[in-house]
Amino acid sequence: MKPSWTNFHSHTFYDDGKSPLEDYIIAAIEQNVKSYGFSTHSPVPFPSTWNMKMENYREYLAEIDRLKEKYKGQIQIYAGLEVDYIEGRCGVHNFRELDYSVGSVHYVNQFEDGNYWEIDYTKTHYDKGLQEIFGGSIQRAFQRYVDLNIKMIEEDTPTVLGHLDKMKMHNSTGKWFEESEEWYQELIEKYLEVIKAKNIIVEVNTRGFYKGYSQLYPSPWILEKVLEKNIPITLSSDAHTTAEITKGFAETALQLKEIGFKTMHVLWDGEWQPFPFDEKGVYLP
Ligand SMILES: [Zn+2]
Ligand SMILES: [Zn+2]
C-alpha cells in the first residue's frame, strides 16, 4: 500500500483563494493527493470581500461536478463549503446540497456601525474589536467565540469543525493570554465535551503553522485532549494557493503520531472513514 494525501479545506478564486478550481485538482494530483474537497467561504447576507457571491454558487457546484467526472479514477473530488456560522443569520442549514461542510466562526460580534469583528483579519482590526466590543477582555471575547462555536455545533451541525481555536491567531507572542491560564483550560474542556457529544470531526489545520502566525489549529495540548476523548480528526491545509495543498502535512502527521493518534478521518468513496497514516501520507485502500 502506497501512502497518499487528502485535503478537505481549500479555497479558490470564488473567494479569497488564488486560482480556478481545475488548477487545484491538477496540483493536487501532482502532490499525490487522492481525495480532495473544495471548501470555498460560503455566501453571507451582507457585503464581504472574501466570501463567495451567492450568484456564483450554482456555477461553483456545476464546476465541481464537471471536475468529478473529468478526473474520475485519478482523484476523488467533493463539494463542500467553509460555512460561516453567524448567529441568527446563516449557517450549514442554508447549504444542503453539499457532500460535506466545514463549519467555522470568523464573524463574532458587530461594531456600533453594524460591521462585524472578523477574528482572522489584521492585528489592528483584532485589537479594535477587542477594545471596543469586549472592553479589552480576551477572556470575554474568547468565551463569546467558543459560545458561538458551541451554538453552531449543537444547532446547525457541520460535518467538520474548522480551526477550533482560530481566535488565538493574533496571540502568537502571548500578548493577550497564556494557554495555560485556568479560565482558558476550562473553556476548552467544556468546548471539547460538546464536540464529543455531537461526534463531529475536528480538523487539524496547518495554515497557522506554515504561515507562521501561530501553531497548529488546534494547539498540540488540545489535540492530546481530543485523542483522550476519542474525537475523530482530519488533516487539512486551508490552502489558498496551489502550492499550499499539502503544506505542513509531513511535519504535522509526524507530530500527530507522536501525540498518539493512529488514524485520521478521510472522505473516501462518499463516506468519512478512519485510515492509518504516517509522515508519508494516509494509507488508503
Ligand atoms: Zn477559516
Ligand atoms: Zn479556510
Structure, explained:
InterPro entries: Histidinol_P_phosphatase_HisJ (IPR010140), PHP_dom (IPR004013), Pol/histidinol_Pase-like (IPR016195). One of its GO terms (cellular component) is cytoplasm. A hairpin with a 2-residue loop joins strand 10 and strand 11 (271-278). The chain is built from 8 helices and 12 strands. It has helices spanning 21-30, 57-70, 123-134, 138-155, 182-198, 207-211, 220-228, 249-259; strands at 5-7, 33-41, 76-84, 100-104, 107-110, 116-118, 160-161, 201-205, 233-236, 263-268, 271-278, 281-282. The chain has 285 residues and is α/β, with parallel strands linked by helices. Helix 4 (138-155) packs parallel to helix 5 (182-198). It has one domain (5-282): Metal-dependent hydrolases (TIM Barrel), CATH 3.20.20.140. The strands form 3 sheets. It has a 7-stranded parallel sheet with strand order 1-2-3-4-7-8-9. The mean pLDDT is 96. It binds zinc ion (2 copies). One zinc ion binds next to loops.
